[in-house]
Amino acid sequence: TTTRHYQFDIKMTNVTRLCKTKSIVTVNGQFPGPKIVAREGDRVVVKVVNHVPYNISLHWHGIRQLLSAWADGPAYITQYPIQSGNSYVYNFTVVGQRGTLWWHAHISWLRATLYGPIIILPKLGIPYPFAKPYKEVPIIFGEWWKADTEAVINQALQTGGGPNISDAYTINGLPGPLYNCSAKEIFKIKAKPGKTYLLRIINAALNDELFFSIANHSLTIVEVDAVYVKPFTTNTLLTAPGQTTNVLLTTKAEYPYANFFMEARPYATGQGTFDNSTVAGILEYKNPTSLSSSSFNKSLPSYKPILPALNDTSFVTNFTKKLRSLASVQYPANVPQMVDRRFFFTVGLGENPCPENHTCQGPNGTMFAASINNVSFVMPTTALLQSHFAGKSRGVYASDFPIMPLAPFNYTGTPPNSTFVTNATKVLVLPFNTSVELVMQGTSILGAESHPLHLHGFNFFVVGQGFGNYNPAKDRARFNLVDPVERNTVGVPPGGWVAIRFLADNPGVWFMHCHLEVHTSWGLRMAWLVLDGSLPSQKLPPPPSDLPKC
Ligand code: C2O
Protein backbone atom coordinates (compact mmCIF):
# COMPACT_ATOMS: atom_id res chain seq x y z
CA THR A 1 0.00 0.00 0.00
CA THR A 2 0.98 3.59 -0.61
CA THR A 3 1.19 5.90 2.38
CA ARG A 4 0.12 9.52 1.94
CA HIS A 5 1.73 11.89 4.44
CA TYR A 6 0.27 15.26 5.37
CA GLN A 7 1.24 17.84 7.94
CA PHE A 8 -1.57 20.01 9.25
CA ASP A 9 -0.32 23.01 11.21
CA ILE A 10 -3.25 24.56 13.02
CA LYS A 11 -2.74 28.33 12.87
CA MET A 12 -4.62 31.56 13.34
CA THR A 13 -4.99 33.47 10.06
CA ASN A 14 -6.68 36.76 9.18
CA VAL A 15 -9.41 36.39 6.59
CA THR A 16 -11.57 39.18 5.17
CA ARG A 17 -15.13 38.52 4.07
CA LEU A 18 -18.06 40.95 3.71
CA CYS A 19 -15.62 43.85 4.36
CA LYS A 20 -14.71 42.57 7.79
CA THR A 21 -11.43 40.93 8.79
CA LYS A 22 -11.30 38.34 11.53
CA SER A 23 -8.75 35.94 12.85
CA ILE A 24 -9.81 32.37 12.19
CA VAL A 25 -8.45 28.92 12.96
CA THR A 26 -7.02 27.31 9.80
CA VAL A 27 -4.88 24.43 8.63
CA ASN A 28 -1.58 25.74 7.21
CA GLY A 29 -3.10 29.21 6.86
CA GLN A 30 -5.52 27.98 4.17
CA PHE A 31 -9.26 28.61 4.12
CA PRO A 32 -10.97 26.32 3.23
CA GLY A 33 -8.35 23.82 4.32
CA PRO A 34 -6.09 21.67 2.13
CA LYS A 35 -7.45 18.65 0.34
CA ILE A 36 -6.40 15.12 1.10
CA VAL A 37 -6.03 12.88 -1.93
CA ALA A 38 -5.65 9.12 -1.65
CA ARG A 39 -6.52 5.99 -3.55
CA GLU A 40 -8.76 3.28 -2.21
CA GLY A 41 -6.51 1.00 -0.17
CA ASP A 42 -3.96 3.71 0.73
CA ARG A 43 -2.82 4.55 4.21
CA VAL A 44 -3.28 8.20 5.21
CA VAL A 45 -1.06 9.71 7.89
CA VAL A 46 -1.83 13.25 9.02
CA LYS A 47 0.33 14.91 11.62
CA VAL A 48 -1.71 17.62 13.31
CA VAL A 49 0.26 20.26 15.20
CA ASN A 50 -1.74 22.66 17.32
CA HIS A 51 -0.31 26.21 17.36
CA VAL A 52 -3.55 27.96 18.45
CA PRO A 53 -5.00 28.81 21.85
CA TYR A 54 -7.88 26.34 21.39
CA ASN A 55 -8.16 22.60 21.99
CA ILE A 56 -8.33 20.89 18.59
CA SER A 57 -9.54 17.57 17.28
CA LEU A 58 -10.05 16.60 13.64
CA HIS A 59 -12.53 14.08 12.21
CA TRP A 60 -12.33 12.32 8.83
CA HIS A 61 -16.02 12.40 8.07
CA GLY A 62 -17.27 9.21 6.43
CA ILE A 63 -13.99 7.30 6.61
CA ARG A 64 -14.93 3.89 8.00
CA GLN A 65 -11.90 3.68 10.33
CA LEU A 66 -11.96 -0.12 10.32
CA LEU A 67 -9.99 -1.17 13.43
CA SER A 68 -8.70 2.42 13.74
CA ALA A 69 -11.25 4.06 16.04
CA TRP A 70 -8.36 5.97 17.70
CA ALA A 71 -8.08 8.04 14.50
CA ASP A 72 -11.78 8.96 14.26
CA GLY A 73 -11.41 12.23 16.13
CA PRO A 74 -14.59 13.44 17.89
CA ALA A 75 -13.32 15.16 21.05
CA TYR A 76 -14.10 13.31 24.30
CA ILE A 77 -15.55 10.37 22.35
CA THR A 78 -12.45 8.72 20.82
CA GLN A 79 -9.75 11.04 22.18
CA TYR A 80 -8.93 14.02 24.33
CA PRO A 81 -8.44 17.09 22.19
CA ILE A 82 -4.93 18.11 21.12
CA GLN A 83 -3.92 20.89 23.46
CA SER A 84 -2.15 24.03 22.36
CA GLY A 85 1.50 23.24 21.63
CA ASN A 86 0.87 19.49 21.20
CA SER A 87 0.46 17.22 18.22
CA TYR A 88 -1.20 13.94 17.26
CA VAL A 89 -0.77 11.72 14.21
CA TYR A 90 -4.00 10.43 12.68
CA ASN A 91 -3.24 7.17 10.92
CA PHE A 92 -5.85 5.19 8.99
CA THR A 93 -6.34 3.09 5.88
CA VAL A 94 -9.04 3.75 3.31
CA VAL A 95 -10.84 0.42 2.92
CA GLY A 96 -13.60 -0.29 0.41
CA GLN A 97 -14.45 3.36 -0.27
CA ARG A 98 -13.96 5.66 -3.22
CA GLY A 99 -15.44 9.08 -3.90
CA THR A 100 -15.68 12.33 -1.97
CA LEU A 101 -15.62 12.73 1.80
CA TRP A 102 -14.28 15.55 3.96
CA TRP A 103 -12.46 16.38 7.15
CA HIS A 104 -13.45 18.90 9.79
CA ALA A 105 -12.76 19.95 13.37
CA HIS A 106 -14.84 17.96 15.85
CA ILE A 107 -14.90 20.14 18.93
CA SER A 108 -17.26 22.98 19.77
CA TRP A 109 -17.96 25.06 16.60
CA LEU A 110 -14.43 25.14 15.23
CA ARG A 111 -15.53 23.30 12.12
CA ALA A 112 -16.93 26.65 10.97
CA THR A 113 -13.47 27.37 9.53
CA LEU A 114 -11.57 24.09 9.86
CA TYR A 115 -12.67 21.88 6.99
CA GLY A 116 -11.51 20.53 3.64
CA PRO A 117 -12.13 17.78 1.06
CA ILE A 118 -11.02 14.17 1.13
CA ILE A 119 -10.78 12.77 -2.37
CA ILE A 120 -10.55 9.00 -2.67
CA LEU A 121 -9.66 7.86 -6.17
CA PRO A 122 -10.40 4.30 -7.28
CA LYS A 123 -7.55 1.81 -7.14
CA LEU A 124 -4.99 2.25 -9.95
CA GLY A 125 -6.36 0.87 -13.20
CA ILE A 126 -9.97 0.76 -11.98
CA PRO A 127 -12.12 3.27 -13.90
CA TYR A 128 -15.10 5.20 -12.61
CA PRO A 129 -18.41 3.56 -13.50
CA PHE A 130 -19.03 6.61 -15.75
CA ALA A 131 -17.03 8.28 -18.52
CA LYS A 132 -13.81 9.88 -17.34
CA PRO A 133 -14.49 13.55 -16.64
CA TYR A 134 -12.43 16.28 -18.29
CA LYS A 135 -11.85 17.96 -14.92
CA GLU A 136 -12.72 17.47 -11.26
CA VAL A 137 -13.81 20.43 -9.15
CA PRO A 138 -14.40 20.35 -5.38
CA ILE A 139 -17.30 22.56 -4.27
CA ILE A 140 -17.61 23.04 -0.52
CA PHE A 141 -20.51 24.94 0.97
CA GLY A 142 -19.83 26.70 4.24
CA GLU A 143 -21.30 29.30 6.52
CA TRP A 144 -19.61 32.55 7.49
CA TRP A 145 -20.15 34.68 10.57
CA LYS A 146 -18.60 38.13 10.87
CA ALA A 147 -18.48 37.45 14.61
CA ASP A 148 -16.28 34.85 16.25
CA THR A 149 -18.17 31.55 16.02
CA GLU A 150 -16.95 30.30 19.41
CA ALA A 151 -18.52 33.39 20.96
CA VAL A 152 -21.73 32.75 19.00
CA ILE A 153 -22.22 29.22 20.35
CA ASN A 154 -21.00 30.00 23.87
CA GLN A 155 -23.47 32.84 24.18
CA ALA A 156 -26.30 30.60 22.93
CA LEU A 157 -25.44 27.84 25.41
CA GLN A 158 -25.22 30.30 28.30
CA THR A 159 -28.54 31.98 27.60
CA GLY A 160 -30.36 28.85 26.42
CA GLY A 161 -31.48 30.55 23.21
CA GLY A 162 -30.77 30.02 19.54
CA PRO A 163 -27.34 31.11 18.27
CA ASN A 164 -27.07 34.15 16.01
CA ILE A 165 -27.54 33.10 12.41
CA SER A 166 -24.69 33.27 9.93
CA ASP A 167 -24.04 36.32 7.74
CA ALA A 168 -23.47 34.35 4.54
CA TYR A 169 -23.24 30.96 2.94
CA THR A 170 -20.06 30.34 1.00
CA ILE A 171 -18.80 28.25 -1.90
CA ASN A 172 -15.17 27.32 -1.33
CA GLY A 173 -15.04 30.05 1.29
CA LEU A 174 -16.52 32.78 -0.97
CA PRO A 175 -19.96 34.38 -0.35
CA GLY A 176 -20.48 35.63 -3.89
CA PRO A 177 -22.00 38.79 -5.41
CA LEU A 178 -25.50 38.58 -3.92
CA TYR A 179 -24.17 39.72 -0.55
CA ASN A 180 -23.24 43.30 0.31
CA CYS A 181 -19.55 43.93 0.22
CA SER A 182 -18.73 40.72 -1.59
CA ALA A 183 -18.50 41.71 -5.25
CA LYS A 184 -15.06 40.16 -5.72
CA GLU A 185 -15.34 37.12 -3.50
CA ILE A 186 -16.91 34.89 -6.12
CA PHE A 187 -16.25 31.22 -6.80
CA LYS A 188 -15.97 30.50 -10.55
CA ILE A 189 -15.74 27.44 -12.69
CA LYS A 190 -13.92 28.44 -15.88
CA ALA A 191 -15.80 26.28 -18.31
CA LYS A 192 -14.84 24.99 -21.71
CA PRO A 193 -17.72 24.09 -24.04
CA GLY A 194 -18.64 20.47 -24.62
CA LYS A 195 -16.80 19.02 -21.63
CA THR A 196 -17.90 16.94 -18.66
CA TYR A 197 -16.86 18.12 -15.21
CA LEU A 198 -17.06 16.06 -12.03
CA LEU A 199 -18.22 18.34 -9.22
CA ARG A 200 -17.35 16.97 -5.80
CA ILE A 201 -19.93 18.72 -3.65
CA ILE A 202 -19.55 18.85 0.14
CA ASN A 203 -21.96 20.49 2.54
CA ALA A 204 -19.80 21.85 5.36
CA ALA A 205 -22.40 24.45 6.44
CA LEU A 206 -23.08 24.34 10.16
CA ASN A 207 -26.82 24.54 10.42
CA ASP A 208 -28.54 24.27 7.07
CA GLU A 209 -29.43 21.76 4.43
CA LEU A 210 -28.99 23.39 1.04
CA PHE A 211 -30.51 23.25 -2.41
CA PHE A 212 -28.02 23.71 -5.25
CA SER A 213 -28.55 24.37 -8.92
CA ILE A 214 -26.76 25.82 -11.97
CA ALA A 215 -28.84 27.94 -14.36
CA ASN A 216 -29.65 26.21 -17.69
CA HIS A 217 -27.54 23.15 -16.91
CA SER A 218 -28.49 19.78 -15.50
CA LEU A 219 -26.62 17.69 -12.99
CA THR A 220 -26.18 13.94 -13.06
CA ILE A 221 -25.80 12.45 -9.61
CA VAL A 222 -23.30 9.56 -9.64
CA GLU A 223 -22.18 9.13 -6.04
CA VAL A 224 -23.11 10.13 -2.50
CA ASP A 225 -21.04 9.78 0.69
CA ALA A 226 -18.31 7.95 -1.28
CA VAL A 227 -20.63 5.24 -2.61
CA TYR A 228 -21.69 5.05 -6.27
CA VAL A 229 -25.40 5.41 -7.00
CA LYS A 230 -27.56 4.68 -10.03
CA PRO A 231 -27.02 7.85 -12.07
CA PHE A 232 -29.96 10.22 -12.48
CA THR A 233 -30.29 13.71 -13.82
CA THR A 234 -31.80 16.65 -11.98
CA ASN A 235 -31.78 20.45 -12.16
CA THR A 236 -31.45 20.83 -8.39
CA LEU A 237 -29.91 18.73 -5.67
CA LEU A 238 -30.34 18.75 -1.91
CA THR A 239 -27.41 18.27 0.41
CA ALA A 240 -27.48 18.16 4.21
CA PRO A 241 -24.53 19.15 6.40
CA GLY A 242 -22.19 16.16 6.44
CA GLN A 243 -23.32 14.81 3.08
CA THR A 244 -21.21 14.68 -0.06
CA THR A 245 -22.52 14.38 -3.62
CA ASN A 246 -20.59 13.78 -6.83
CA VAL A 247 -22.30 15.09 -9.94
CA LEU A 248 -21.42 15.26 -13.61
CA LEU A 249 -21.93 18.60 -15.30
CA THR A 250 -21.76 18.69 -19.08
CA THR A 251 -21.18 22.15 -20.48
CA LYS A 252 -22.96 23.55 -23.55
CA ALA A 253 -21.64 22.10 -26.80
CA GLU A 254 -21.08 25.55 -28.31
CA TYR A 255 -19.83 28.72 -26.71
CA PRO A 256 -23.09 30.19 -25.30
CA TYR A 257 -22.07 33.90 -25.26
CA ALA A 258 -23.30 33.97 -21.67
CA ASN A 259 -22.35 33.01 -18.15
CA PHE A 260 -24.52 31.23 -15.64
CA PHE A 261 -25.08 31.56 -11.93
CA MET A 262 -24.86 28.56 -9.63
CA GLU A 263 -26.69 29.11 -6.38
CA ALA A 264 -27.29 27.45 -3.05
CA ARG A 265 -29.79 28.34 -0.37
CA PRO A 266 -31.44 26.54 2.52
CA TYR A 267 -34.13 23.95 2.82
CA ALA A 268 -35.73 24.75 6.16
CA THR A 269 -38.92 23.54 7.79
CA GLY A 270 -38.46 24.42 11.48
CA GLN A 271 -39.84 27.46 13.21
CA GLY A 272 -36.53 28.90 14.33
CA THR A 273 -34.69 31.70 12.63
CA PHE A 274 -32.14 30.76 10.03
CA ASP A 275 -30.02 32.44 7.41
CA ASN A 276 -32.23 32.45 4.32
CA SER A 277 -29.74 34.17 2.04
CA THR A 278 -28.26 32.78 -1.19
CA VAL A 279 -24.68 32.08 -2.13
CA ALA A 280 -23.86 32.43 -5.81
CA GLY A 281 -20.93 31.35 -7.92
CA ILE A 282 -20.42 31.55 -11.68
CA LEU A 283 -20.05 29.02 -14.45
CA GLU A 284 -17.92 31.20 -16.70
CA TYR A 285 -17.41 30.24 -20.34
CA LYS A 286 -14.28 31.02 -22.22
CA ASN A 287 -14.65 33.63 -24.94
CA PRO A 288 -13.74 32.04 -28.31
CA THR A 289 -13.63 35.35 -30.19
CA SER A 290 -10.77 36.63 -28.10
CA LEU A 291 -7.21 36.05 -29.21
CA SER A 292 -5.94 35.69 -25.68
CA SER A 293 -5.98 32.11 -24.50
CA SER A 294 -6.87 33.14 -20.97
CA SER A 295 -9.87 35.28 -21.86
CA PHE A 296 -13.18 34.48 -20.27
CA ASN A 297 -16.49 36.20 -20.62
CA LYS A 298 -16.32 38.57 -17.66
CA SER A 299 -19.88 39.86 -17.58
CA LEU A 300 -22.05 39.00 -14.59
CA PRO A 301 -24.47 36.27 -15.60
CA SER A 302 -28.03 37.10 -16.50
CA TYR A 303 -29.17 33.51 -16.06
CA LYS A 304 -30.16 32.50 -12.54
CA PRO A 305 -31.23 29.00 -11.46
CA ILE A 306 -34.71 28.44 -10.09
CA LEU A 307 -34.44 26.86 -6.68
CA PRO A 308 -37.31 25.17 -4.80
CA ALA A 309 -39.15 27.08 -2.07
CA LEU A 310 -37.44 27.13 1.32
CA ASN A 311 -39.77 24.51 2.81
CA ASP A 312 -40.33 22.36 -0.29
CA THR A 313 -40.42 18.97 1.44
CA SER A 314 -42.09 17.31 -1.54
CA PHE A 315 -39.09 18.19 -3.74
CA VAL A 316 -36.83 16.74 -1.05
CA THR A 317 -38.87 13.53 -0.78
CA ASN A 318 -38.85 13.00 -4.54
CA PHE A 319 -35.14 13.71 -4.75
CA THR A 320 -34.13 11.38 -1.93
CA LYS A 321 -36.33 8.58 -3.32
CA LYS A 322 -34.25 8.61 -6.51
CA LEU A 323 -31.04 7.86 -4.64
CA ARG A 324 -30.36 4.14 -5.10
CA SER A 325 -27.22 2.08 -4.68
CA LEU A 326 -25.58 1.05 -7.91
CA ALA A 327 -25.99 -2.55 -6.66
CA SER A 328 -23.97 -3.98 -9.54
CA VAL A 329 -21.79 -7.08 -9.66
CA GLN A 330 -18.70 -4.94 -9.15
CA TYR A 331 -20.31 -2.70 -6.51
CA PRO A 332 -22.85 -4.87 -4.70
CA ALA A 333 -25.19 -3.48 -2.04
CA ASN A 334 -24.56 -5.66 1.01
CA VAL A 335 -27.83 -4.82 2.71
CA PRO A 336 -28.29 -6.84 5.93
CA GLN A 337 -31.23 -9.10 5.09
CA MET A 338 -31.58 -10.46 8.62
CA VAL A 339 -31.67 -8.28 11.72
CA ASP A 340 -30.35 -9.16 15.19
CA ARG A 341 -31.46 -6.05 17.05
CA ARG A 342 -34.13 -3.45 16.34
CA PHE A 343 -34.03 0.03 17.82
CA PHE A 344 -36.46 2.91 17.68
CA PHE A 345 -35.11 6.40 18.43
CA THR A 346 -37.04 9.63 18.62
CA VAL A 347 -35.01 12.64 17.53
CA GLY A 348 -36.04 16.18 18.20
CA LEU A 349 -35.95 19.27 20.33
CA GLY A 350 -36.92 19.77 23.97
CA GLU A 351 -36.17 21.96 26.93
CA ASN A 352 -34.06 22.19 30.06
CA PRO A 353 -35.11 24.25 33.07
CA CYS A 354 -33.53 27.67 33.37
CA PRO A 355 -30.95 27.73 36.19
CA GLU A 356 -31.91 29.88 39.16
CA ASN A 357 -31.09 33.58 38.96
CA HIS A 358 -30.74 33.34 35.20
CA THR A 359 -32.75 34.76 32.35
CA CYS A 360 -33.02 32.20 29.59
CA GLN A 361 -33.86 32.95 25.99
CA GLY A 362 -35.24 29.51 25.06
CA PRO A 363 -38.93 28.53 24.75
CA ASN A 364 -41.06 30.08 27.56
CA GLY A 365 -37.96 31.22 29.40
CA THR A 366 -36.43 27.72 29.49
CA MET A 367 -33.25 26.57 27.75
CA PHE A 368 -33.31 24.86 24.37
CA ALA A 369 -32.25 21.22 24.43
CA ALA A 370 -32.33 18.36 21.93
CA SER A 371 -32.40 14.63 22.51
CA ILE A 372 -32.55 11.06 21.24
CA ASN A 373 -35.16 9.01 23.11
CA ASN A 374 -35.40 12.01 25.39
CA VAL A 375 -31.76 11.61 26.48
CA SER A 376 -29.82 14.79 25.89
CA PHE A 377 -26.23 13.53 25.69
CA VAL A 378 -23.86 15.20 28.11
CA MET A 379 -20.29 15.35 26.79
CA PRO A 380 -18.04 13.42 29.15
CA THR A 381 -14.79 14.93 30.45
CA THR A 382 -12.97 11.63 29.92
CA ALA A 383 -12.72 10.23 26.39
CA LEU A 384 -15.15 7.31 26.13
CA LEU A 385 -12.95 5.10 23.95
CA GLN A 386 -10.07 5.35 26.42
CA SER A 387 -12.30 4.51 29.42
CA HIS A 388 -13.78 1.60 27.51
CA PHE A 389 -10.37 0.28 26.46
CA ALA A 390 -9.07 0.58 30.02
CA GLY A 391 -12.23 -1.08 31.37
CA LYS A 392 -12.98 1.98 33.49
CA SER A 393 -16.44 3.16 32.58
CA ARG A 394 -17.61 3.91 36.10
CA GLY A 395 -18.30 7.59 36.56
CA VAL A 396 -17.74 8.22 32.83
CA TYR A 397 -20.68 6.69 31.01
CA ALA A 398 -23.64 4.36 31.58
CA SER A 399 -24.50 1.51 29.19
CA ASP A 400 -28.27 1.81 29.43
CA PHE A 401 -29.12 4.06 26.50
CA PRO A 402 -32.87 3.45 25.93
CA ILE A 403 -33.58 1.23 22.92
CA MET A 404 -36.97 2.89 22.48
CA PRO A 405 -38.75 5.89 24.03
CA LEU A 406 -39.58 5.25 27.69
CA ALA A 407 -43.06 6.72 27.31
CA PRO A 408 -44.38 6.52 23.74
CA PHE A 409 -46.49 9.47 22.56
CA ASN A 410 -47.92 10.73 19.29
CA TYR A 411 -44.60 11.89 17.80
CA THR A 412 -46.01 13.96 15.00
CA GLY A 413 -49.11 15.23 16.80
CA THR A 414 -49.57 17.20 20.01
CA PRO A 415 -46.36 17.11 22.06
CA PRO A 416 -46.43 15.37 25.46
CA ASN A 417 -47.18 17.42 28.58
CA SER A 418 -43.55 17.65 29.60
CA THR A 419 -40.99 18.46 26.98
CA PHE A 420 -38.09 18.47 29.42
CA VAL A 421 -35.19 16.16 28.53
CA THR A 422 -33.04 13.85 30.67
CA ASN A 423 -29.37 14.85 30.69
CA ALA A 424 -26.92 11.92 30.78
CA THR A 425 -23.90 10.27 29.15
CA LYS A 426 -25.25 6.93 27.95
CA VAL A 427 -24.03 4.52 25.30
CA LEU A 428 -25.67 1.58 23.56
CA VAL A 429 -23.58 -1.59 23.60
CA LEU A 430 -23.54 -3.90 20.57
CA PRO A 431 -21.78 -7.27 20.37
CA PHE A 432 -19.40 -7.53 17.41
CA ASN A 433 -21.18 -8.19 14.08
CA THR A 434 -24.66 -7.34 15.33
CA SER A 435 -26.96 -6.65 12.41
CA VAL A 436 -28.84 -3.50 13.40
CA GLU A 437 -32.10 -1.98 12.23
CA LEU A 438 -32.66 1.52 13.51
CA VAL A 439 -35.77 3.59 12.94
CA MET A 440 -35.34 7.29 13.68
CA GLN A 441 -38.59 9.11 14.27
CA GLY A 442 -38.73 12.88 14.15
CA THR A 443 -40.84 14.49 16.86
CA SER A 444 -42.89 17.65 16.59
CA ILE A 445 -41.79 18.96 19.97
CA LEU A 446 -41.06 22.67 19.36
CA GLY A 447 -41.65 22.18 15.64
CA ALA A 448 -41.06 19.51 13.02
CA GLU A 449 -37.66 19.86 11.46
CA SER A 450 -35.42 17.73 9.24
CA HIS A 451 -32.46 16.34 11.21
CA PRO A 452 -29.45 15.04 9.23
CA LEU A 453 -28.21 12.20 11.44
CA HIS A 454 -24.58 11.15 10.99
CA LEU A 455 -23.12 7.85 12.18
CA HIS A 456 -19.37 7.54 12.69
CA GLY A 457 -17.51 4.34 11.79
CA PHE A 458 -20.12 2.84 9.45
CA ASN A 459 -22.05 3.26 6.29
CA PHE A 460 -25.71 2.33 6.59
CA PHE A 461 -28.43 1.50 4.12
CA VAL A 462 -31.51 3.72 4.05
CA VAL A 463 -34.15 1.00 3.74
CA GLY A 464 -37.27 3.11 4.25
CA GLN A 465 -38.71 6.48 5.06
CA GLY A 466 -42.13 8.00 5.49
CA PHE A 467 -44.25 10.65 7.11
CA GLY A 468 -46.29 10.53 10.31
CA ASN A 469 -45.62 7.96 13.04
CA TYR A 470 -43.67 4.86 12.06
CA ASN A 471 -45.92 1.82 11.93
CA PRO A 472 -43.80 -1.38 11.98
CA ALA A 473 -46.57 -3.72 10.85
CA LYS A 474 -47.29 -1.65 7.75
CA ASP A 475 -44.01 0.11 6.98
CA ARG A 476 -41.48 -2.70 7.40
CA ALA A 477 -43.10 -4.74 4.63
CA ARG A 478 -42.19 -1.95 2.22
CA PHE A 479 -38.50 -1.69 3.05
CA ASN A 480 -36.12 -1.69 0.09
CA LEU A 481 -33.61 -4.47 0.77
CA VAL A 482 -32.38 -4.61 -2.84
CA ASP A 483 -30.78 -1.29 -3.79
CA PRO A 484 -31.22 1.21 -0.94
CA VAL A 485 -28.76 4.10 -0.91
CA GLU A 486 -25.72 3.52 1.29
CA ARG A 487 -24.41 6.53 3.18
CA ASN A 488 -23.17 8.00 6.46
CA THR A 489 -25.59 10.92 6.93
CA VAL A 490 -29.34 10.84 6.36
CA GLY A 491 -32.12 13.35 6.86
CA VAL A 492 -34.91 12.31 9.21
CA PRO A 493 -37.87 13.90 7.40
CA PRO A 494 -39.75 16.64 9.26
CA GLY A 495 -42.82 15.00 10.79
CA GLY A 496 -41.64 11.58 9.63
CA TRP A 497 -39.18 8.75 10.08
CA VAL A 498 -36.31 6.99 8.37
CA ALA A 499 -35.16 3.36 8.74
CA ILE A 500 -31.53 2.31 8.35
CA ARG A 501 -29.62 -0.97 8.60
CA PHE A 502 -25.95 -1.56 9.29
CA LEU A 503 -23.62 -4.31 10.39
CA ALA A 504 -21.70 -3.48 13.57
CA ASP A 505 -18.42 -4.95 12.30
CA ASN A 506 -16.12 -2.24 13.62
CA PRO A 507 -15.10 -2.36 17.31
CA GLY A 508 -14.91 0.99 19.10
CA VAL A 509 -17.03 3.85 20.37
CA TRP A 510 -18.92 5.54 17.56
CA PHE A 511 -20.59 8.89 17.83
CA MET A 512 -23.99 9.49 16.22
CA HIS A 513 -25.47 12.96 16.07
CA CYS A 514 -27.48 15.50 14.18
CA HIS A 515 -25.06 17.29 11.84
CA LEU A 516 -26.86 20.59 12.37
CA GLU A 517 -24.26 21.95 14.76
CA VAL A 518 -26.76 23.81 16.91
CA HIS A 519 -28.73 20.60 17.54
CA THR A 520 -25.54 18.67 18.35
CA SER A 521 -24.63 21.40 20.83
CA TRP A 522 -28.07 21.06 22.44
CA GLY A 523 -27.54 17.32 22.97
CA LEU A 524 -28.90 15.57 19.85
CA ARG A 525 -26.09 13.00 20.01
CA MET A 526 -25.29 9.56 21.45
CA ALA A 527 -22.66 6.86 21.11
CA TRP A 528 -22.62 3.18 20.17
CA LEU A 529 -20.09 0.93 21.82
CA VAL A 530 -19.21 -1.99 19.56
CA LEU A 531 -17.42 -4.78 21.42
CA ASP A 532 -14.45 -6.75 20.12
CA GLY A 533 -15.06 -9.99 18.21
CA SER A 534 -13.30 -13.20 19.18
CA LEU A 535 -10.69 -13.27 16.38
CA PRO A 536 -7.55 -11.12 16.60
CA SER A 537 -8.63 -9.34 13.41
CA GLN A 538 -11.86 -8.32 15.16
CA LYS A 539 -10.28 -6.54 18.09
CA LEU A 540 -9.61 -2.85 18.60
CA PRO A 541 -5.81 -2.45 18.68
CA PRO A 542 -4.23 -0.54 21.57
CA PRO A 543 -4.06 3.26 21.23
CA PRO A 544 -1.10 4.93 19.51
CA SER A 545 1.51 6.20 21.96
CA ASP A 546 0.95 9.86 21.06
CA LEU A 547 -2.80 9.77 21.73
CA PRO A 548 -3.53 13.05 23.58
CA LYS A 549 -3.71 12.80 27.36
CA CYS A 550 -6.01 14.81 29.54
CU1 C2O B 1 -19.02 15.28 10.29
CU2 C2O B 1 -19.38 13.75 14.01
O1 C2O B 1 -19.22 14.57 12.19
TrEMBL record:
Its EC number is 1.10.3.2. Binds 4 Cu cations per monomer. This is Laccase. Lignin degradation and detoxification of lignin-derived products. Pfam families: Cu-oxidase, Cu-oxidase_2, Cu-oxidase_3. It catalyses: 4 hydroquinone + O2 = 4 benzosemiquinone + 2 H2O. Belongs to the multicopper oxidase family. Its cofactor is Cu cation.
